[in-house]
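Sat 14:20. Reprocessing the chain from the morning session after the first attempt stalled halfway. Input below, unchanged.
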Amino acid sequence: MRKKIPFIATAVLALGVAGAPQAQANTGFENQMSPEACQKSQATSQFKYAIYYNSNYGGAYRNVGYSVWDFADERIGGAPQGGTQPLKFCHGGNGNLQGIKNNAASVKNKHTTYYAVTYFNSGYKGSADWSSPRSQTNLSVTKNENASFAWQTL
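Finished this time. Tokens:
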């Protein structure tokens, strides 16, 4: 009987560890569906990066909270699904409801610590525009040629 108790305890412990849910944010879902993205103004949104259709922070824009591997396909749930799920501009104005990929001209970074980096290619690759913490930037090397975004430190 003594030998069974350690075996049962080990089995229960293993099941508890293996069955424990992993705490991980679904960043695609948050970037696509959170009210912070399109229902709140850039000034009131908790999302710290705003990407604009026009230069000088004009036209439609979208608040983004998490790094985006590919603006043309920001997956809800992460796994491959039918079709693509592009991030689109919202908040009205020129560019409203158009895809963000290769259509942005300026960004605002409200973060106090991280640089907002807008990349030419998907997957955080290629030339990039770096926006300092608490800054706004007209895109230059990635103007209308932007494919991904990431938070970075120096």
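The beta strands are 49-52, 61-64, 106-109, 115-121, 125-131, 135-138, 148-152.
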